[in-house]
Structure formats: structure tokens, C-alpha cells
Amino acid sequence: MKKTIILLILTFTLGVNAQEVKSLTLKEAINYALENKADAKKAKLQVENGEYEIQEIRSRALPQISASGSLNHNPILQTTVIDGAGFGAPGTTIQAAFGQKWSSGAGITLNQALYDQSVFIGLKAAKSTREFYQINAQLTEEQVIERVANAYYQVYVTRQNLNVFDNNLKNTNKVKDIIKGQYDNGLAKKIDLDRILVRISNINTQRQQTINAVQIQENSLKFLIGMPIETKISIPQTEFEVTANALSQTPDTTTRTEYLLLKKNEQLLQFQKKSVQAGYYPTLSLTGSYNYIGQGPEMPWFKKPSDGVYWSDYAAIGLNLNIPIFTGFGTRAKVRQAENKLQSIKVDLEETKLSLDLEYENAKTQIDNSIISINNQKQNAQLAQEVLTNTNNNYIQGLASLTDLLDAENELVAAQNNYTTALLDYKLAEIQLIKSKGELKTLTNK
């Protein structure tokens, strides 16, 4: 019996915890996404990978050291025909075999670049490569912030629409109770009661559809921020306030992340062009090697001269100079390709700046229009509420028909939904305005 009671308590406790609702502000949603969303994680990994690429470039300027070893068995030695005069037998030829049946060697080699333009340019490009990945990670974060903010406000508005249907259902049920009382007392027609019941059924259908929409949008939001889908969330009312925005000064779009990323890419392409042009320059490197070799009729390992095996060492130090003279115009073609890419990205920079300027102007215009629409819809919703209140009083007193009452309810619902839609349009335009000013990261502090 005790075990059953404990099990029931645990089940109830787990059920309560499973239904615990997490209050989620916009700031919390964005920061959660930046920590957990795959796009943000991959951007950080790209920055880390960029460091490894830089290390790879730097390695070309460091000494390259390698070791080698070999063991060879020659079952049949190659013979060479030589003049016997050198051996005291002029006029004859001698067929002699050179080498030993077995040979083994080990050595170490060093190669150090002394002058190589491509290496020097690569070292200069390393810093720009790091900055490129950092800017790209910043752009990815801004894209995550924008998507999360848009989805967040979509959820809020749909929930507001659900509140509208809840209030409408509550008011319509009150009217139903009045009509039912009147009908029971013979003061109302059955058709009036049927009409109000149909009205309630329609509201319930719309309400259920809105509940489904809220659930789908919340799931989309949780996916966007990397939150477990089963988590219950709520959005505070204070998150949807209309605030003033600085619209007087046009922002410098050349400081936008999208533009900076293209500029950094342009710089990398300039380094790439210089790296290709380095093919016209000579290269100079220092080489050194040290080797140890053993030869004899038997496998040389662990053998001595008494076994017919002799070991010796040798070393070499040298300079390698390579001067390109003619490459079949291949280097020239590569340089022209690099120049073509630079010209292309300059066009992209002009187009991007124009697009960013347009984005700001459109967002500013949308903000102005949305504020006007919000004020108009707010007044319209207040007026629709007054009309409904007066129509409801008149209906109770028999001075208005049921049709007038239902029409007044419909108008109020439409006015309230239009108001929340205007708020959504404003908030979406506000996000675009913040983005066009390059200030999306400020949403992580609100």
C-alpha cells in the first residue's frame, strides 16, 4: 500500500514538473539560440577551424624536417662492361658487378624556405583569414537573432488573437444565458437561441484553430532557438510595447556586417592575386641531409665488418634556386582570373550598399506607417468596444435586435485583431530598422 502511495506521489510530482511553464523574454530566447542553435555552434566551429588554417599557412615558413629509412635486397646484381686496360689487360673487356646483395640506409632531411613570395603573402593573409571567419560568425549570429525575433513576435500576436477569441466567447456565453432565460420565460424566439448557439460553435472552432496555430508557431520558435519541443513557454506582456526609434540620422551602411564581410573577402582576393603573381618570382631554399648506409652480402642490421658488412655516413648542405622563365602563360591566366574575381566583388559591394540603404529607407517608412495604423486601430477597437457595450444594453432593454448585437461582436473582434496585426507589423518593421542600423546584437541586452 505504501509503495502504491509513493508511486502515485512521484507520478504526480513528475506530471507537475512536466507541465512547468518557462517564461521566455525576447532576450532569453535570443541568448538561448546563440548558445544552443546549430547555426551558431557551427559558426563558432568555423572560427576555430580558421585558426587551424592559419597554422597551416604559417607552417610553410617553418623548417620542414623528415626522416627516411630503407632496406634493399638485390638477388641479381647488375653487371657493367668496362675496358680491361685499366686493370692491366688492354684490348680486353671485363664484365664486373658493382654493389652488394644487401643495403640499408637511414637519413634525416631539412628544407627551409629562404625566399618565397607566396609564403610571405600567405603569412600576411593569415590575419585577414581570422577576421573573415570572425565577421562571418557575427553575421550568422545576427541572422539567428533576426529569425528568432520575427518568430517570437509571431507567437505573441497569435496568442493575443487567442485572447480575443476567449473574451469573445465569454461575452457570447453571457448573451446566450440571457437569451436562454428569455426563451424559458417565453420572451425570446427559439431561432434567436439557435443563432447564438451557432455563433458560439463558430467561435469555438476559430479558437481551436488559433490554439493549433499557437502550438505550431511555438514549436517553430523552440526549434529556431534549439529548445526541446516539449518545453512549455509563456511570453510576458511587457515584451510587446511600442517604443520610439531614432530615425533622424541615416546609418552608415558600410559598417554593416554584410558589407564588412564582402570587404574582407575582397582583401583576401587581393592576397590571392598577389600569391598567384608570386609565381613570377624566383624561390630560394636551404636544404640539408644526413644519412647512414650499410652494405654487404648479408642483411646489414646488427652486422660488423667481420661479417663483410660496412657502415658509413654522409651529409650534404645546399641551396636550391628556382627561377621561372616560361610557364606557357599559365601564371598570366591565373592572375587575370584573380583580377576578374576582384572586379566581380567590387560590383557586389556596390550592389550590397545600395540594397542596405534601401533596407533602411523601407524599414523607416514601414515604422511610420505602422505607428499611424496602430493609433487608428487602437481608437477603432475602443470605439467598437463602446458600440458593443451600448448595443448589448439596448438588446437587454429590447431596443436592439440580436443581429445588431452579433454584428457589434464581429466588429469588435475584427478591430482587436486588426490592432494586434498592426502591432506585429510595427515590431517586424522595428526588427528590420534595428538590423539596417547594424544593431541587432542590442536585442540580447533588452
From TrEMBL:
Entry similarity comment: Belongs to the outer membrane factor (OMF) (TC 1.B.17) family.
Entry keyword set: Cell outer membrane, Coiled coil, Membrane, Signal, Transmembrane, Transmembrane beta strand, Transport
Gene Ontology CC annotation, any one: cell outer membrane
Compartmental location: Cell outer membrane
A GO molecular function held by the record: porin activity
Transmembrane segments: none
Organism: Flavobacterium rhamnosiphilum
UniProt keyword annotation of Signal present: yes
Coiled coil: 335-394
Signal peptide start and end residues: 1-18
Record's protein name: TolC family protein
